[in-house]
Amino acid sequence: MCGIVGYVGSDNACDFLIGGLRRLEYRGYDSAGVAIYGGSTFHITRSVGRIDALAMQLGAVPPNGTLGLGHTRWATHGPATIENAHPHLGGDGEIVLVHNGVIENFQTLKDELIQKGYHFVSATDSEVIAHLVAESLKNTPETVGQPNLRYLNAVQGAISRLRGTYGLAIAFRDHPNFMIAARFGSPLVLGVGKGEYFVASDASPLVGRTDRIVYLADHQIAVLTPEGFSVLHRDQGKVRVNIRQLETDSSEATREGFEHYMLKEIYEQPESIRNAMRGRLDEENATAVFGGLNLTPQQSRMVERIILTGCGTSWHSGLVGEYLIEDLARIPVSVEYASELRYRNPPIENNTLVFGITQSGETADTLAALRETKRKGHRTLAICNVVGSSIAQAADGGVYLYAGPEIGVASTKAFTSQCCVLAMLGLYFGRLRHLSFERGKQIIEELRQLPNAIQQTLGCNEQVRDVAQKYQNASTVLYLGRQFNFPTALEGALKLKEISYIHAEGYPAAEMKHGPIALVDKETPSVFIIPRGTTYTKVMANMEEVKARGGPVIALANEDDPQVQAVADDVIHVPQVPEFLQPIVNVVPLQLLAYHIALLRGCDVDKPRNLAKSVTVE
Ligand code: AGP
Questions:
Q1: How far is Cα 426 from Cα 532, in angstroms, rounded to an integer?
Q2: What are the coiled-coil residue ranges (predicted)?
Q3: pLDDT of residue 146
Q4: 582 lines ligand 1 (CB under 6 A)
Q5: Atom number of ligand 1 nearest to Cα 363
Q6: CA pair distance 65, 39, nearest whole angstrom
Q7: Which pLDDT does position 236 carry in this prediction?
Q8: Cα separations in angstroms, 407 against 71, 247, 465
Q9: Residue 516, preceding bond cis, omega within 30 degrees?
Q10: Which of 28, 512, 533, 566 is most buried, by CB atoms within 10 Å?
Q11: What is the per-residue pLDDT across 272-303, written as a single tens digit (0 to 9) for each?
Q12: Distance of alpha carbon 79 from alpha carbon 89, whole angstroms
């Protein structure tokens, strides 16, 4: 899940490359590099670590050229070293290439190329593609009067031998002002400018350079020169592509005064929840409406089971969705890890809807699980935040979150927006079954209160920071909740793990007695999610069990709760909301707790180690 960029035009390529890589850095930050064509050769600059290090290396006067490629890496093959940093060269340097994805048959191809005398300088699978293109070019005859065609044929020949996923941008030392981009399985977009063209792993580098975008589909290959571009499909030849309007403004991609994107995105949640609900609550019929589900009411009534699938935080919102849809619509729901669903091959009955939940829309496991269930004839839908993303393209329909760009690697506003959309889907399917008009009206009213409830919850930030101060050196933290708040506990634990590197586990509170309570000692804090509700007394008992064994207790509770006050060491107040909406409010202090602990431990909150924002490899 690297980030790649490319530029061909009349402007200095370096500005777009470095600016674009900064925007894509959340996709991987193990190493970076650019290649800029100038004076009949490519100037290659690579560095380990962040784009800042690369910009430093480029210095005050970077190479000047109107053609270039760039890459920021999330290591899959070979450690984070200069040798393994992209761009990679093919042959004796006539091919320059950047790659996002994983080539599964790279070792076989590499052995074959070594036999043919190619010399490898890196441990990466990507360098294999560069040499493969060089080899293919050697065997591709000139086409008189069509110099571009030879290079196109050579690339097509090379990529036809690849097994795995790729988003590629390729340039040629001996054929300047020309670039080829190709995709299968990894995301790739083109930016259409005036006399200049851009390639990027997603739309963010294009913001402020052009608002005309082409989302490349699988097996498509693009040829770009300053004069224009064309797109071909592996099997269908030349294809007409849809140039879309990019609906993003540059302010969304900035921190707007917040110290970190994660904190900004936590504070954006009242607005992102409003966006998720905008135009979707139908007071007149006391239900929810979705423009992109592509389902008739009859088809929706026929649904007998729903599968929710995703990864990480999106899997957690799926768990919340299970409680919501079963409660509001009485439809059986199962929640599947996408990486397991793909290979577990479960029996799926007819009239089952499969929802892929994803912020980025590019997660390879979720894409593969949707494709597999679709191949078996099931209707697939996406709950997704990125317009035009691969999963949005692959699904039969879906619901966009409209949460705006989420740049912090730790997902926050996407989780609450996913849960909000799942609540509205519960209302939609429920009102097509037994849910009464009155109950529907009430649910709409309760949903409309959410942004204010979240705004109120954000008021606990200072208090959470004090609690974080107290527990910043814990080595293990337990998160505990019941019913709707069990997935909230899992999500709280994941946030702490991924940005502070503290070991954390989430459990249904009652599960503690069956083993995890053995972890409790005075160094191991337990975070209990205990708002008033059907399981309040049960959670209270679980909390006292931990207290009885000397474990520090942090409680998320409603105001004026002397019982909790009496037992817990620290109480963080959350407003009282209906149980089915509690995860959307109660997760906010847990996001802030992880944020402040990570900050106090000097961790890089927005770009935690070993992670990337969208996981485009299996
Ligand atoms: C969550 O904070 C992580 N970034 C990660 O678990 C993420 O939720 C997962 O990779 C799924 O990503 P998606 O929602 O973009 O598909």
A1: 23
A2: none
A3: 86
A4: no
A5: 16
A6: 8
A7: 87
A8: 18, 17, 22
A9: no
A10: 28
A11: 999 999 999 999 999 999 999 999 999 999 99
A12: 18
Mean pLDDT of all residues belonging to the chain = 95
C-beta 359 within 6 A of ligand 1: yes
221 CB within 6 A, ligand 1: no
Pairing of strands 379-384, 352-358: parallel
Give me the residue label for tokens 């065609």: 149
Rg of the chain on CA atoms, in Å: 26
> Which helix (DSSP H) or strand (DSSP E) does residue 152 occupy?
helix 147-159
State the pLDDT at residue 256: 85
Our CA dihedral for 430, 434, 440, 446, rounded to 10 degrees, sits at -70
Q: Just give the CATH number of 456-618.
A: 3.40.50.10490
Distance of CA 87 from the midpoint of ligand 1 (Å): 27
Q: Could you report the per-residue pLDDT of 154-194, keeping only the tens digit for each?
A: 999 999 999 999 999 999 999 999 999 999 999 999 999 99
Which of 239-243, 263-267, 555-559, 585-589 shows the lowest per-residue confidence on average (mean pLDDT)? 239-243
Binned at pLDDT 50, 70 and 90, residue 255 comes out as confident
- Backbone phi and psi for residue 564, each to the nearest 5 degrees, phi listed first: -65, -40
- Over residues 66-84, the mean pLDDT reads 93
Could you give the CA distance from residue 615 to residue 608 in angstroms, rounded to a whole number?
14
Element (H, E) at 317: helix 312-329
d(CA 274, CA 473) in angstroms, rounded, equals: 37
- In short, whether 275's Cβ falls inside 6 Å of ligand 1 is no
Domain spans in the chain, listed from the N-terminal domain onward: 3-249, 255-448, 456-618
Domain 3-249, CATH among 3.60.21.10, 3.40.190.10, 3.60.20.10, 3.90.1150.10? 3.60.20.10
Q: 326 phi and psi, to 5 degrees? A: -65, -35
**Does 456-618 match 255-448 at the fold level?**
yes
Residue 248: band (very low, low, confident or very high) from pLDDT cuts 50, 70, 90: low
Q: What is the C-alpha separation between 197 and 283, in angstroms, rounded?
A: 46
Token pair, residue 156, equals 């097509």
Cα 398 from Cα 416, distance rounded (Å): 17
pLDDT value, residue 76: 85
pLDDT above 90 covers a percentage of the chain that reads 89
CATH number for region 255-448: 3.40.50.10490
357 CA distance to ligand 1 middle (Å): 10
Residue 360 CA: nearest ligand 1 atom is 15
Q: Contact, 408 vs 262, CB < 8 A?
A: yes
- Phi and psi at residue 215, in whole multiples of 5°? -90, 110
Which one-letter amino acid corresponds to residue 252?
E
Element (H, E) at 92: none
CA dist 81 → 1, 121, 573 (Å): 17, 11, 47
Assess whether pLDDT exceeds 60 at residue 250: no
Q: What average pLDDT score do residues 379-384 get?
A: 98
Mean pLDDT, rounded, for 17-26: 93
Sign of CA dihedral 142, 146, 150, 156: negative
What distance in Å separates the CA atoms of residue 492 and residue 480, rounded to the nearest whole number?
9
Residue 200: strand pairing partners: 5, 189
pLDDT of residue 371: 94
Interior/surface letters 500-521, b for 16+ CB within 10 angstroms, e for the rest: bebebbbbbbbbbeeebbebbe
Active site residues: 2, 613
